[in-house]
Each structure stands twice: as structure tokens, then as C-alpha cells.
């Protein structure tokens, strides 16, 4: 996957034979520029844009947030909520780029290589691997099997790579499948019982698809696939980015305030900052509220509604909607108590 | 030719695999964005009539030691502890968010019907007749009917036959299942408003025995341990105590059943549960045989934030 020193050749003849050296170098540099701009720039722009969304579209509130949320906090907050989206985008680009790259030699010489292929040409192997590792630890377990065909496609791992001879190759494959089936068997039975067809398909189909995903595509498919998938990946990123933009970057709390003796009020919102005089709360229903510090009686951290699970399936006691990281975290701190104040105050 | 066709087959397989993987990924993306299919605790809370109330009103007994008693301005007892657990689960943590409504036995159903109480946790037996008027979540306790006699009569009143004798005045509270059960056994009972009145009457010599649930009697026994004795009589029926909910609020009933079941599941795993804590602090030391939480019935499947926590 490391950047090849020369244009890709493979028996058929040099693919980019018509390009001269300087042209190629320039194209490469441009591709590298566009790729790294996308990787670094998109998260940076997103993390600033979402502040405006979080502030409820109010200019002064946005400025208050900008003044109080440091760049490191902003980036860390963004990565926590958007790592899944980021790794999905990277994995999609790498897998599609690699499939298109092995197919591209079927195209007439001199034809412009698809964008993803050019990106794959310049991306170092370690970055591809890092993208997959990020996906491995941040994707929900239910979608993790999809990473198998994506990984196999990105590195073009044909079954032949397992062993040169047929019999050991088949045995190795059989062992891998048996291991996979053993790991998931109780979950599959439970999914069948609950009638969760999509979950069943998402867990069973990907390893089978991984067997056939390597190798070149027919020439007729390449061009439409390249343009359609480029548009699709872009559309997916935009579609998936909308909820990420609206995911709050500040933690949600319920603060009990006592403005007068014996009178208490609960305020649901995000803490922007605390100083000697005030606690500044960005209320969930909108608006900023300055609460004098000596009026604060209690404060609890609350989960947001987006965290409610959609499935009732577990893989070896890991909930299918947890990522590996979240699942391991729950083992470190297994008890999660929802504070009563989070339930009623809205 | 052979090599060519296998090459072709390979590309068709690749095309198919790529297309299927992409569709599967798209399906996964859509699945991730759809609303949760199962109702959540929050959905049910919004449906229920307690949503938005500053305080929850819970009907309890004020004169039944160990179950529900008002002592020095604070409510104590097993039912009260269960009420506090349910209230805090519903979002009403702490006594400042709970309004305890003292209820006599016969006032429990009218209180729910008339909207005086949002819930009733007051030794409320789940019976078919009552289920036509109010909803029940539970059971949270299984009890039996017993008779408590003063020490002076403990050798003379031992059977149901003895209760039928005209020289003994048997007392019970009105509107209770005990009253109906005594009638069934042709025991003529004097009906008063509260079991406490019976106990007071016995101490003053007006009655000779009191019949009620073993939990309520255990409470009075705990108050006067040297004056009374509970006599085990084969009334034959067991009472299942449930939490009364207005019949028009199925969402609230579901929530209460869900939280009772949560405590039940904790207890089954061998962990300390809110039920067990309440039992040990109140009834536990006074029961002849130790009890465990019964399995609640008709528990809905609800999604909650802690669903992803490890189960073991």
C-alpha cells in the first residue's frame, strides 16, 4: 500500500505511460495535498461549525462558547463524538480505492485515475492500518463484521495468501469460520429469536463476502462504480455528519438551584464555565443562564436520549451497540446509575 | 478459454461482493439512524400523568407499624421504603419530592380513582374485583392471613373453629380482603376503620382477637412484643400485595412493574436489591419465616440507559 515508486504496471503494459515524470509528480503532490487537507481540514471546520449549532444559532452564545471552549477541548470533544464517522470515511475510501486500483489496469491507457485510486497511491500503509485500527475500536460491534471485507479489500488479501496449497488453505479458512461462528453463535440464536433479520445479516454475511471481494472488477463496472461511490461516500459523510454536528460538545447536567430559601429549581443544561461568581449554563431548551455559585445546591451528570440502545443483543456480554472501547470501559466501571433528576427535568 | 472464463467468474464474484457489501453498509447506516423500536422508560414517563409534576403523591398507611407508619413526622415502614424506591426510579428522589398521602384501608381505591394519589403502596392485595377498579403492578410481597391474640387468650384461640365461638369478639379493618375471608369461613367479625383500632380495642378489653395480613400483624407485634402472639391458622389463601395505579394510566403501571422487576432481577443475581434492603430494615426481623421478593407479573420490555451495562 505504500506509495509505489513507479506507475503501476502488471503485464498489460505501463498504465500511465503517456505521463511524463514531472506531470506525474505534480499530480501526486496535488492528490497528497487534497487528501491531507480533507483529513485535517474537515474535522477542524466541523468542530468550529458545531459550536454555532450548539449555541442554538445565537451569535453571542456562539462567541461565549468560542471564548470558553479551548481548541484542545474542542478537538478532543470532536474526536470523542466523531471518531466513528471519521474512521468510517477513511475505511470506505481505502477499501473502494484499493478495489478500484487493482481494476484500473483494465481501463484504456491515459484515462484519468479515479480520485480514490489517486488517494490510495499516496497514502502510506501505516495510515491505512491506523484508519482500520481506529474503526476497530470505535465502531459498534454490530457493524464490526463489515470491517472484514473492507480490510480484505483494502489490502487485497486473497484466500491464496493464507497458504499456497489447497488443502491447508481450506483447513485454515474452515478454522477461521468455525472460530467466528463459535464467537457469535449465542448472539445469532438470540437474533433469530427476536426476529432481528438485519442484525443476523450484518453478523453472518460480511465474512462470506470477504471471500469474494478481492480481485479486479470488470472494465464496464469500474467507471460507474468510481463515480457513484465517490458521490455516495461524500453523501454518506454529509448525512452522517449532521447528527455529529448537533451532538453537544459539553457534558449534559442537571443543576439544582436554590434562588430563595426553601425554593429549588432544576436546570437542565451544559456547563460552559465556572468562575468565582457564576456557573454559566447553556440551557438545553436554549439560552444562557448565569447562576450565582452560592445558589447551586447539587449537580448531576445525565445521559442524552441519543444514547438509548436500539437492539437487545449481546455478543459475549458486550452490547452490540457498544464499540470495543466502550465495552471495555463498562467492564472497568460496570455500574451505571441514572440519577433521578435526569428523568423528570426537561 | 478455461482461464478466461474463470477470470471472468472471479470479476463477477468481486462485483457481486462489492455491491452486496456496499448495500449492507448502507442498510447498517439506515439502521443506525432510525428511532429505537422498543419503548423506553423515558417514553413511558412522558405518556404517564406524573410527567411534569413537581412532586409525586403516594398513598401509604400511617398507622401500620413496620409497613407504613407516621412517626415523629417521618414515614417509615416496608411499604414506605418500596414507595421511596419507586419514586426515586421515576425521578422523584428524596422526601421533598414525595407527598405521602395517609390512607385508611377503605380509602385506597377512592384515592386512586379521585386523583388524590398517583400511586398507592399500602398492603394493597391484588384481587380480581379490585382489578376492575384500579391497575396493579406487582406483586412485591406475598403474605398470608393470620390472627393475633392477646397473651391471655393464646391457649384458647388456636383454630378457625375457636374464632366462630360467640363469646369471642373478632376485629378486622373494613374494605380489606380479610373481612371477606372471615365471612367465607362464617366468622362474625367486628369491622373497624384501621387494624390499629382493633389492637387498641384488644388492649382495652373490647375485642379478643384481630385478623389481618401477617405483615400488618407483625408490625403491631413489634410494638407490643410481650402482650400478643400471632396464631398460625389455615385460612388457605395467600395474598399478593401490589402497587395500586390509576386504571387510566397504563404507562405508569408499566413503569412501576419495570422497576419492581429491576429490583427482582438484582436480587436473583445475588446482589443486594432495594427490595431486600427495605425488607431487612423493616419486616425482616419480625417475620417467622424469611421472605424473598416474588416475581412481578406482566413486566413490559423497556429500554433504559443502563441496558448496555455488563450483566455479569
UniProtKB/TrEMBL annotation, chain A:
Top-level division of the source organism's lineage: Bacteria
Keywords: Membrane, Transmembrane, Transmembrane helix
The UniProt record lists the keyword Transmembrane helix: yes
Membrane spanning stretches: 31-49, 85-104, 125-146, 166-185, 197-215
Protein name: Uncharacterized protein
Organism this protein belongs to: Micromonospora halophytica
Taxonomy of the source species: Bacteria, Bacillati, Actinomycetota, Actinomycetes, Micromonosporales
Automatic annotation (TrEMBL), chain B:
Similarity field: Belongs to the bacterial solute-binding protein 3 family.
SUPFAM superfamilies recorded: Periplasmic binding protein-like II
Domain Solute-binding protein family 3/N-terminal: 55-279
Comp. bias (Basic and acidic residues): 301-312
Name of the molecule in the record: Amino acid ABC transporter substrate-binding protein, PAAT family
UniProt-recorded Gene Ontology molecular function terms: ligand-gated monoatomic ion channel activity
Signal peptide residue numbers: 1-28
Pfam families: SBP_bac_3
InterPro entries: Bact_solute-bind_prot3 (IPR051455), Iontro_rcpt_C (IPR001320), SBP_3_CS (IPR018313), Solute-binding_3/MltF_N (IPR001638)
Alphabetical UniProt keywords: Signal, Transport
A single GO cellular-component term on record: membrane
Amino acid at each position: 500500500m505504500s506509495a509505489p515508486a513507479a506507475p503501476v504496471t502488471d503485464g498489460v503494459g505501463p498504465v500511465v505511460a503517456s505521463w511524463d515524470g514531472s506531470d506525474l509528480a505534480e499530480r501526486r503532490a496535488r492528490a497528497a495535498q487534497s487528501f491531507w487537507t480533507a483529513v485535517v481540514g474537515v474535522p477542524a471546520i466541523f468542530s468550529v461549525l458545531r459550536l454555532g449549532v450548539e449555541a442554538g444559532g445565537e451569535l453571542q452564545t456562539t462567541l461565549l462558547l468560542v471564548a470558553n471552549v479551548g481548541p484542545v477541548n474542542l478537538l478532543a470533544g470532536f474526536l470523542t463524538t466523531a471518531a466513528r464517522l471519521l474512521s468510517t470515511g477513511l475505511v470506505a475510501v481505502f477499501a473502494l480505492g484499493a478495489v478500484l486500483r487493482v481494476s484500473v489496469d483494465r481501463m484504456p491507457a491515459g484515462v484519468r485515475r479515479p480520485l480514490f485510486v489517486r488517494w490510495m497511491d499516496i497514502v502510506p500503509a501505516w495510515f491505512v492500518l491506523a484508519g482500520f485500527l481506529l474503526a476497530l475500536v470505535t465502531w459498534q460491534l454490530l457493524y464490526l463484521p463489515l470491517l472484514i471485507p473492507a480490510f480484505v479489500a483494502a489490502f487485497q488479501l486473497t484466500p491464496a495468501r493464507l497458504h499456497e496449497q489447497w488443502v491447508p488453505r481450506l483447513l485454515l479458512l474452515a478454522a477461521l469460520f468455525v472460530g467466528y461462528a463459535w464467537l457469535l453463535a449465542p448472539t445469532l440464536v438470540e437474533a433469530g429469536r427476536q426476529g432481528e433479520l438485519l442484525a443476523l445479516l450484518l453478523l453472518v454475511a460480511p465474512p462470506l463476502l470477504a471471500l469474494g471481494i478481492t480481485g479486479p472488477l470488470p472494465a464496464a463496472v469500474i467507471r460507474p462504480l468510481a463515480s457513484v461511490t465517490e458521490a455516495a461516500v461524500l453523501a454518506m459523510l454529509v448525512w452522517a455528519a449532521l447528527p455529529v454536528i448537533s451532538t453537544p460538545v459539553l457534558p449534559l447536567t442537571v443543576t439544582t438551584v436554590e434562588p430563595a430559601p426553601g425554593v429549588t429549581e432544576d436546570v437542565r443544561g451544559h456547563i460552559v464555565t465556572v468562575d468565582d461568581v457564576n456557573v454559566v449554563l447553556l440551557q438545553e431548551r436554549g439560552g444562557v443562564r448565569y447562576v450565582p455559585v452560592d445558589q447551586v445546591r447539587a449537580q448531576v451528570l445525565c445521559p442524552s436520549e441519543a444514547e438509548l440502545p436500539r437492539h437487545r443483543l449481546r455478543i459475549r456480554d458486550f452490547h452490540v451497540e457498544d464499540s470495543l472501547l466502550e465495552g471495555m470501559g463498562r467492564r472497568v466501571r460496570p455500574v451505571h446509575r441514572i440519577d433521578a433528576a435526569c428523568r423528570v427535568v426537561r | 478459454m478455461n482461464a478466461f472464463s474463470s477470470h471472468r467468474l472471479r470479476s463477477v464474484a468481486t462485483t457481486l461482493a462489492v455491491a452486496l457489501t456496499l448495500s449492507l453498509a448502507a442498510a447498517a447506516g439506515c439502521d443506525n439512524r432510525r428511532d429505537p423500536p422498543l419503548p423506553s422508560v423515558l417514553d413511558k414517563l412522558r405518556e404517564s400523568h406524573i410527567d411534569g409534576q413537581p412532586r409525586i403523591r403516594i398513598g401509604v398507611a400511617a398507622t401500620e407499624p413496620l409497613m407504613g407508619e407516621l412517626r415523629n413526622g417521618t414515614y417509615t415502614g416496608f411499604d414506605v421504603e418500596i414507595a421511596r424506591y419507586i419514586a426515586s426510579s421515576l425521578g422523584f428522589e428524596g422526601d421533598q419530592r414525595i407527598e405521602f398521602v395517609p390512607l385508611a384501608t377503605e380509602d385506597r381505591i377512592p384515592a386512586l380513582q379521585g386523583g388524590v394519589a398517583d400511586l398507592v403502596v399500602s398492603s394493597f392485595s391484588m384481587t380480581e374485583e379490585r382489578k376492575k377498579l384500579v391497575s396493579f403492578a406487582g406483586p412485591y410481597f406475598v403474605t398470608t392471613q393470620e390472627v393475633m391474640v392477646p397473651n391471655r387468650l393464646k391457649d384458647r384461640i388456636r383454630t378457625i373453629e375457636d374464632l366462630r365461638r360467640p363469646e369471642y369478639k373478632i376485629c378486622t379493618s373494613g374494605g380489606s380482603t380479610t373481612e371477606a375471608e372471615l365471612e367465607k369461613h362464617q366468622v362474625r367479625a367486628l369491622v373497624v376503620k384501621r387494624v390499629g383500632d382493633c389492637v387498641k380495642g384488644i388492649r382495652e378489653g373490647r375485642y379478643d382477637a384481630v385478623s389481618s395480613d401477617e405483615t400488618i400483624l407483625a408490625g403491631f407485634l413489634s410494638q407490643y412484643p410481650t402482650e400478643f402472639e400471632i396464631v398460625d391458622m389455615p385460612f388457605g389463601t395467600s395474598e399478593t400485595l401490589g402497587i395500586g395505579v390509576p386504571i387510566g394510566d397504563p404507562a405508569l403501571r408499566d413503569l412501576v412493574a419495570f422497576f419492581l422487576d429491576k429490583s427482582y432481577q438484582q436480587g436473583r443475581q445475588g446482589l443486594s436489591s432495594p427490595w431486600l434492603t427495605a425488607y431487612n430494615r423493616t419486616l425482616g426481623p419480625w417475620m417467622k419465616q424469611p421472605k424473598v421478593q416474588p416475581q412481578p407479573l406482566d413486566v413490559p420490555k423497556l429500554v433504559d440507559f443502563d441496558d448496555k451495562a455488563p450483566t455479569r
